[in-house]
Amino acid sequence: MHYWLVMPAAGSGRRFGAERPKQYLPLAGRTVVEQAIAPFLADPRCRGAIVALDAGDAFFATLPVASNPRVTRVEGGARRCDSVRNALDALTAEADDWVLVHDAARPCVQRADIDRLVAEVAGDAVGGLLATPLSDTLKRADEAQRVAATADRTGLWRAQTPQMFRVGLLRRALAEAEAAGSEPTDEAQAIEWLGLTPRLIVGNPGNLKITTAGDLAIAALRHTGESRMNLRIGSGFDVHAFGPGDHVMVGGVRIPAQRGVIAHSDGDVLLHALTDALLGAAGLGDIGQHFPDTDPRWKGADSAQFVRHAVELVTQHGYTLVNADLTLLGETPRIAAYRDAIRTSIAAALGVAPEQVNLKATTTEKLGFIGRSEGLAAQAVVLVSGQS
Fold it and tell me: What are phi and psi of 22, to 5 degrees?
């Protein structure tokens, strides 16, 4: 038998928070999406792959897989179901042909899993999907995030992809869901709404979906087979003297102050230290090499762009930020009222969750130039991970 592959890849990856969609992050010498599609393109039963992309996608065309004659690109939609429906419409397939739908962010599916799915579902009247039985105890939380109840996990499974259905049946299921104003979270749910029961095929727990930086690190381990992650630490330190002005920038947040700082850019001492830490972790020099204060382009520049540039370079070199720990040293300004805003701002520049950013502030007990309120200093330490 033969099948077609549909891969929805129009997501922006906002939850992951990287500079580019998570499907384009590096993973074991390729990107996530290339790892995800590779087992299917290597399967002679796969007639072709339809990849649904965001209309403004600037990344896929740069990948080697984009020139594969068996790969067709179509415009995706705002929702997963829209992308899958657009891809199905582009198929030159018969209604009884099989189609496998697989997430672009699942780069660890194994050929053995695909073989098992195809073998067990090919004779089924409805179709089926890879899934794993739940083994963890499930807790239901109340609004205060306290345990409200312990749920019964009997009969509960964790759905995976690929999911395998007849082209005509899946088209009808998605069309009826759209007409009813419903949004299925996966293809199996759309089939269920027709009153049918897809078959569950035991999958591999390692077939994880990339949602966080930790998932990406685990996926790298699965691809490389290494017993340890390649962890690297970077540190940064920066100082700015006070000067004329009525505010200071700290972590991308404007804080009113009796004085400003003397700087070529916006003088954000915290972001400058963070930029140096990121560059140092990947062995990429320092902020002065990338953004020299002799260059008029950086006059008054927003320092968040320095951080974003550093993150992009770190990512291109195969590393993912694990966490950042920052310390602001100064008698003034006091940042207690701005702490959450600063963490949120820094997390946005880094493309991570605020929980991955820690911020501390301290004084020097009136000692030295900081103690005399002549300036501000900041220290940053970051941990990044990559494959060995």
Answer: -60, -25
